[in-house]
Specification:
The chain is mainly alpha-helical. It has 22 helices and no strands.
């Protein structure tokens, strides 16, 4: 007798939890080995202080070679991705068994995916540790937009002194500061509080996705939950690696939900909160204002009050941190060093196969052209009717354009920006391609497990080439079924 859908999903859930449990010790091993052969006395001191010197020595013995580190991460990624793909396939094959009771169970299981990543140690990028330091600086009266870290701010953090300033929005900075204040002088408490805040953003986004699709079929709601909550890229980078992108994306999804419900007086503050966290969603103000212009006249006074309060809140967030007009310089002054973008992979592949040196502008144009075409078409549809599904498609394409071309570096956690939007979108070839990309995007993390930045060429080419068979699997295997509005 064949197992039913609920049993199949529960088995996949157990497999995913097992993969997360494996990641906890693996993360401590990978985190303790510098990817670029650097000496890290601060990190060594923290490991020794936590009684983890043995793990550090074990990692140095087993994982000294980049190939060993890369193989370990790829093997774990395959172990963690398989349950999500198996679950999607089971849902597609047994869609008739999906009902509201199953969706409720699935939501409960999915929420558990935020727990074990709380214990994962960041394995590559230093963003989490830097935010811990910046939060401490604000509590001490400094500003990470102007000041370099002090020894007191660095105490107990596995991080060497650094010489750059915060490019993040003031809302993210104040969250860091609030958590630093609550944690006091305990680095462990500060680490866990930050992880809990990222998990809260992930869980809030999961709940918002289900709310947005409340009127949809049980199958569609289940599929959205699997895409957002089971693919490793979301819980790995938001909760596991500790990136603050959830502070920007959770309010963005709230804005989309409120936009669908016609609650513009609440939608605008949500979008402003998203912008105040990381700035990248600022262009969506145009969508919000266009939709608001269609609201009945009697509701415009409340909207004007919401706009005034939002502006006042942003001013209050910025005022204690800003000292002069150079407040945004850390954001605007980020370099134009391009790495891990699709144009980087395209340029490298052309060089390897033909010897030709493709110009960056041409490579960017080739990547941007189809996205711009789709964005223009979706924007025109939204302008005519201000439909929710058109707004979602505009946001999806705009975020893809931003992460692929607008940003000079396509870090894998940047691609988490499109994850919840893809879960919400009307599905077709575009969303199937995005889901396939999200399945393989963690391969970009191999950059930090290599021998240096020069490994970026191979990492970029390998990841985007892996996208092709992943797309074939998702599309031909029916892992993500097509949906229209509903």
């Amino acid at each position: 007798m064949q197992p039913d859908l609920r049993t199949l999903l529960l088995r996949s859930h157990a497999g995913l939890l097992a993969a997360q449990a494996v990641l906890v010790p693996v993360s401590f091993l990978l985190a303790s080995v510098s990817p670029f052969g650097l000496v890290q006395p601060e990190e060594t001191a923290v490991f020794d202080g936590l009684g983890l010197a043995g793990a550090s020595r074990l990692a140095e013995a087993w994982l000294a070679r980049p190939a060993a580190r890369g193989a370990l991460f790829v093997a774990w990624l395959a172990l963690a991705t398989a349950p999500a793909l198996v679950a999607l396939r089971a849902l597609a094959r047994r869609a008739s068994e999906a009902d509201d009771a199953l969706v409720r169970d699935l939501a409960r299981w999915t929420r558990r995916h935020a727990l074990l990543p709380l214990l994962v140690l960041p394995m590559g990028a230093l963003d989490l540790w830097i935010c811990l330091v910046w939060g401490r600086m604000v509590v001490a009266g400094g500003s990470p937009y102007y000041d370099l870290p002090t020894p007191a701010a660095l105490k107990g953090i596995p991080l060497a002194p650094f010489d750059h300033f915060s490019p993040y929005g003031p809302l993210s900075t104040w969250i860091d500061a609030a958590l630093a204040f609550v944690a006091g002088g305990s680095p462990v408490a500060l680490f866990l509080l930050h992880k809990a805040s990222f998990a809260a953003a992930w869980l809030a986004t999961l709940a918002l996705i289900d709310r947005a699709l409340a009127a949809a079929s049980a199958e569609r709601r289940a599929q959205a939950m699997l895409v957002f909550g089971w693919l490793p890229i979301g819980w790995l980078y938001w909760v596991g690696e500790g990136h603050n992108d959830g502070f920007m994306i959770a309010p963005l999804v709230a804005w989309l939900v409120l936009l669908r419900e016609g609650r513009h007086a609440l939608a605008l503050p949500s979008l402003v909160a998203s912008i105040a966290a990381k700035y990248a969603t600022a262009p969506f103000l145009a969508l919000e204002l266009w939709a608001a212009a269609r609201m009945p006249r009697e509701r415009r006074r409340g909207y004007a009050v919401a706009a005034a309060l939002s502006l006042a809140a942003v001013a209050l967030l910025i005022a204690p941190l800003a000292r002069d007009g150079s407040f945004l310089d850390p954001l605007l002054g980020q370099g134009s060093w391009k790495i891990l973008t699709p144009s980087h992979a395209l340029k490298t592949l052309v060089l390897w196969t033909t010897g030709a040196n493709l110009r960056w502008k041409l490579a960017d144009a080739l990547v941007a052209a189809p996205l711009l075409g789709g964005l223009l078409a979706a924007g025109l549809r939204f302008a005519r009717g201000a439909r929710f599904d058109d707004a979602v498609r505009v946001v999806l394409l705009a975020l893809l354009l931003a992460t692929f071309v607008g940003m000079d570096r396509t870090w894998p956690w940047y691609l988490t920006w499109v994850l919840p939007v893809a879960a919400l979108a009307e599905t077709g070839a575009l969303v199937q391609a995005v889901v396939a990309l999200l399945a393989v995007a963690p391969l970009l993390s191999l950059l930090w497990l290599g021998t240096g930045w020069e490994s970026g060429n191979a990492v970029a080419v390998a990841t985007y080439l892996a996208w092709l068979p992943a797309f074939a699997l998702v599309r031909r295997g029916g892992l993500v079924r097509p949906w229209t509005s509903g």
